[in-house]
Amino acid sequence: MWALQPLLRRKLQRRGREEAGYLHAVEERFGHYAQPTHPSLIEGGYVWVHAVSLGETRAAAVLLEALRAAQPDIRILLTHGTATGRAQGVSLLQDGDVQVWQPWDTPAAVQRFLAQFKPHIGIVLETELWPNWVVECNKAHVPLVLVNARLSEKSMRQAQRLAWLSRPAYQGLSAVLAQTQADAERLSALGAKVDGVFGNLKFDAKPDATQLALAHTWKQKLKRPVLLFSSSREGEEVMWLDTLQALKDAPLDHRDHLHAVHWLIVPRHPQRFDDVATLMAERGWKVSRRSQWTDGPETDHSDDIDTIWLGDSLGEMALYYGLSDAALLGGSFAPLGGQNLIESTACGCPVVMGPHTFNFAEAAQLAQEAGAALRVEDMAQAVTTALQMVRSDLDERAHVQACMAFSQAHRGAAQRTAEALRPYLKTN
Hints:
Blueprint: H1 5-18, H2 41-44, E1 47-50, H3 54-70, E2 76-80, H4 83-89, E3 98-101, H5 107-117, E4 121-125, H6 131-139, E5 144-149, H7 153-161, H8 163-171, E6 175-178, H9 181-189, E7 194-197, H10 209-219, E8 226-232, H11 236-248, H12 252-258, E9 262-267, H13 273-282, E10 286-289, E11 307-310, H14 317-323, E12 326-329, H15 342-346, E13 351-353, H16 361-370, E14 373-375, H17 379-391, H18 393-409, H19 413-421
Parallel strand pairs: 1-2, 1-4, 2-3, 4-5, 5-6, 6-7, 8-9, 8-12, 9-11, 10-11, 12-13, 13-14
Helix pairs in contact: 3-4, 3-19, 5-6, 6-8, 10-14
């Protein structure tokens, strides 16, 4: 890990050309900090919460709300690995909190991090586990707890192949709070001390009410339903555009189905917004970008049936889901493991997902069983299924109701998790 530091710096420089956030405070990643330690924290320390990326940061928001309700005076040390996670995390900070990059996993960097901030607990969300974090936290007598923990079959097999490294790391955790029983069993098989199954924090996240209201206002102006391709990944956009082109070239009745909806796409990674826009333009589509909208998408052009809307903004997924009548789940049509479908269903937007959802296996299965999501074999079937879904008002209403019931049925993980963490939190 020490020898890889120059490669990390080069990677950050490359990423920084597309996302400037990666160029901010680079030295923090190696345990060098500009801000002094707050005097009042020398004894008490921070509650360190690590949320590596955007999805984990949204889960952290729910957990922090529950922790602050139980203990309002705690101060949070919030760390991230990605620029989108850090940008989202700013909104979670209160007076006395600190936000920095996660320390690179070398003994020296982690030691400097722990000496600087003196956390009395580390709370790590979902899957992020670094061996030197575990070793150095144990040396410093800082309990490290993995919460909202998940582990796919694929990840477990990879960890088992590196058992000499992964098993001591999992065994060194103070506790693991698993999302599902299957996650708990896999984590236990790697030696983790699993305290129980607590559910998924993301079910407790409330969609942004302002964004949903704006989506409702815009939707009133539309004469056609909206189909969303959410969190699309590289390679999947080509599958999708190939399918749309096949429908364009099909007999007239099939073409009518294609033109009976507005298409909206939101790529998973913001650095790909321009690439996806270029790809669609090269395929003959006109592109209307969210960043250029003033009062909603333009819909008054006679040729807007050949226009695709591009969601090129951050932090507005509730707006996009609220505007849409159904969503194709990105990451599930290529073998990438899928993306989180919980936010979509919480907004009342039913999901059509492909065969690859191993990163969110139980949530996907439960959503399918509840009627909030439909499983298909490939992209062509996904597009056809979504078009059929929005053609029937009765079917669409039933799926929307299933979404809301599914979301409501699985809430409560935040309170259970906060209660489990209480013994680790110092009180003044």
